[in-house]
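Lecture 7 notes. Example A: sequence first, then its structure tokens.
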Amino acid sequence: MTRILKLAVIAFAAFTVSGCLAGKFMSRYALTPEPHGLADIERTRHKADSLCPGSTAWYDSLKDQNILKDTTIVGYRDFKVHACYVPAKDPANAQGTAIVVHGYGDNHFVFLYLVRMYRDELNYNVLFPDLQYHGYSEGDHIQMGWYDRFDVEKWIEVAHNIFNDNFMVLHGVSMGGATVMMTSGDELPDYVRAFVEDCGYSSVVTQFNNNRKQSFKFIPPDVLQSASLVTKKKYGWGFWEASSVKQLAKCEKPMLFIHGDADDFVPTDNVYKNYDAKVNGYKEIWVVPGAVHANSYAKAPQEYTQRVRDFLAKAKTL
């Protein structure tokens, strides 16, 4: 009996150690990938052009004319964070201000198609930041939208001070979409009037579990708990608390939900969970036929633009 007990203790200890090691690996793998930051700018410039040809030439032209500008502030946890901003095509008749939030492993370049849409077609001023650990911003890990929302809230104030509009929309794609949803549940200024989320996940743990099943089937789901504890100890937040649906339950302002019906990276069922979680205030949903992850605009650019235009017009009446 004593021998069996010893073997059981040894087996439990081995399982615990292996679980801790696996948790550390998963936390590090997910939240501190390489490359990031300055070394990765050129790759993402190419990605921006692949999503919408001519995007970086448009960006460079506006920057050469000193129309598009950079700014840096001290963000959450005292890291310096960067953003670009550009006035509406017709500033005197600007319709408002949009803050465009990029996805995981991207930066402010990647979703230039949205910046161009808002500026050139919808006549909005636009601010588009680099989230922490991305682009020109500092940071010690990818915050999966949860802590990023605190930086977005700082950018809301910065953008308002620059453009002084009384109508602001937050629009994010993928992790940026989750960031927007997570931000929407916080107390925000009255001039923040609408949100557009495109293919955002319902929670960090849901997304990581899906990634685990896709790429690490041999790793049991219990390891996510260990990885969450590692993340909590190191960075101050855990996977289970980082929830879009919990924040959406507190959101009362208009929101447009967009998702591709062929998305398997952030599976389409996430958008229905998110949509159902927003129980107060106006909401719309558009599931794009044949669109894979973060592909809805590329799949139907004219309809995408029109749906956003119509949604914002509706939001202004509420």
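Example B, a different protein, same format:
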Amino acid sequence: MKVPDSRINLVIMHLRSVGKGRFGELASNCGDALSSLTHPLAILITIKIPGLDNENFASGAERYQNVLVKTIAEYGLDNQEKGQSPLPNFLSITADDGKTVSIGIIKHLGNPVGQIAAIAEETSEESLSLPEALWLCASQLSVRINTLLSTSGSAAIEILGRQLLSALKSDGIRTLTIGFASGGDAWVSLYQYRNRTTAREIERLPQEQVASINDGEIIGENTLKYLWADIDVAAGIWVSTKAGYYLALGFDDRKHINPRIGDRIKELIELKAKDDSAHLIKSFEKLKNDFQKLVKSERAAAITETTVTINHEINNPLTAILGNTQLMLMSRDKLPSDVVAKLETIERSAIKIRETTAKLMSIIEPVTSAYASGLEMIDIEKSKKKKPQ
């Protein structure tokens, strides 16, 4: 990769902006970085994280955006949820007109959660090419998503806070601060404006103040300003949950305060916990099925390796035995009848060995049956085999 010294700091600065992004701004941060690094004709970014609002970014002329959509569909990269086939991490195509289309798949723990696609003219050697810049941005974004989706700390409560704030849109709740009731973790303050939710971490209140919070208590003026220093909130209430969370809810108007809102939030958190349990069960079942498939695959591979060895070590001398036997049988009229009978037995046995090794080579899903002394043997006839070409 040829990057002039004068651009190194610029590249690092833009990658750092992607690596520090929060939920809700990941796609836009990445799009801005990619635009500054390569000036593409069009960009399309989609991030779909379960339980959160989708993030999208689009720039450039519509005709070039259509080219990106068509290319994504042509290579089957628009069927991420279907899981029909493994997706590559990166793809770059040069069209007949010299334009380059690059696509990067964003993954979390190996599962696709989004994609970055861009199209650009051929670039000079003095700047980053589109494939280089897109690969850097896609890699940095994947790392950031994997960090944010870790199972502990502020990222975990931010995800829960975003889900709750999205579910409470119609209740006049404009802001929400969420944190663990105990421990030293920071709290996360979220603010929703024009269908976009921004978030920032704030220092938690002193522990003695947290311990004195009562469920449904009206938040005082000083605490309101502390929780949402740069947002004008008319009123707020505290909600404490058995799950160990404290939530501060901010309202546009005092008349929107509903004493039952706390109960609704607790129900939402309880439902989420049940969903998480269901997700764990489904994940375990998938893991178990994948393991069983892996075991079958490994067994089939072991059979193939063994059969290859058999073919090499047995079939070669067997060919000589069978060939010489059949050659001798061509002169059967000159041989005693008992010798001919023995040669025919050798021929039949050699052919049977050859057919058995051929059947072993065709097995793709072995079936075993009891042999003796607790041992199992492969049932060649019952095992699933490749269809003859």
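Note on Example B: Residues 171 and 258 are 8 Å apart (CA to CA). The longest helix spans residues 261-329.
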